[in-house]
Amino acid sequence: MTETRNNETVVDLKNVNYEYTTKNTIVQAIQNIDLTINHGEFVCLVGPSGCGKSTLLKTIAGYLDPTSGECLMENEPIKGPHWKRGVVFQSSTLYPWLTVRKNIEYGPRTRKKDKEEIRKTSDYYLDQIELTDFAENYPFELSGGMKQRVSLARVLANKPKLVLMDEPFSALDAITRLKMQDFLRILWKKMIRLFY
Ligand SMILES: Nc1ncnc2c1ncn2[C@@H]1O[C@H](COP(=O)(O)OP(=O)(O)OP(=O)(O)O)[C@@H](O)[C@H]1O
Ligand SMILES: [Mg+2]
Description:
By secondary structure, this protein is an alpha+beta fold. The chain folds into two domains: 1-82, P-loop containing nucleotide triphosphate hydrolases (Rossmann fold, 3-Layer(aba) Sandwich); 92-160 and 173-196, Rossmann fold (3-Layer(aba) Sandwich). Helices cover 35% and strands 21% of the residues. Helix 2 runs parallel beside helix 4 and helix 3 runs antiparallel to helix 4 (144-156). The longest helix has 22 residues, at 174-195. It is globular and about 50 Å long. Magnesium ion (MG) is lined by residues 53-54, 166. Adenosine-5'-triphosphate binds at residues 20, 22, 27, 29, 47, 49-55.
């Protein structure tokens, strides 16, 4: 955790457990997790491979229902995915048939936001991720780092309450990864000042 602006709770997990049931076994992936995340916090989960980080993230995202325990977001139970909880994955999940701009605009468009507002939002995030010149390009024309920046912009364009990222830069080379981590930290500080 690197910075906190106020104590308003966004995520509250109480005694959360998740078990995967496969053909022959039951895997207890996370056990007795209590976690509170407040507005403006940047939280990193660190642990060895297989310790349950992705499982925990998927539970908060609403992709997995906990086997037991309580997952709350702003005091409401988390039930399924929601645009308020944006997720950035390890590899790009951009829509290949849409341009960079259209990918960023996808969320606000499906939520039927005002056209002018949508355009302003995509202009703003294209500028933030330094890809204004690539607005009309397609994902296959971008580098790995560029694609991940668009993935982040696509999530941020929804003005989410929470951004969940599962090793978002791990598929990139070491130098690009370091640059992207710096980029993310700078962007996060800017967003925090703007929205919270
Ligand atoms: N779909 C699944 N079905 C069965 N077991 C699973 C499934 N996904 C994960 N697991 C098991 O749950 C445990 C936690 O996995 P998880 O992917 O959450 O770990 P992780 O901390 O994210 O690991 P990594 O750092 O390698 O990404 C592991 O023992 C894994 O084998
Ligand atoms: Mg993982």
